[in-house]
Specification:
- The chain is mainly alpha-helical and about 110 residues long.
- It has a domain of about 55 residues.
- The chain contains 3 helices and 4 strands.
- The strands form 2 sheets. A two-stranded parallel sheet has the order 1-4. The chain has a two-stranded antiparallel ribbon with strand order 2-3.
- Strand 2 and strand 3 form a beta hairpin.
- Helix 1 runs antiparallel to helix 2.
Length: about 110
Amino acid sequence: MLTLASQFDSRHAPLLPLDRWLRRMVVCGLLIVLLFPLGRGQIPWLGWAPLWLVGMPLAAWWALHRFRLPWPRRGAWTGRRRRRLGGQARRRAPMPAHWASHGARAT
């Protein structure tokens, strides 16, 4: 279940050594992808390198923090659904039978 950062409980604080290690892996992966052409390509025995060098460490880091979402912007969520300004949709009148047969091709 996804929770907002404001609902974070201090009992579930991430392990600091693992948090530091994952941050370092993300930074190292980013540097490899940015500085070395091999880091941006496809490796036959590994697959797409940026996924394994940046994407997976980022996903592990996010999972370590229990999938918390970032703080919402002030006023971004009001708790109410926005109403549409237009009126309710109306049904169309049924199409006359001679119009339906006019569009059909003769075989």
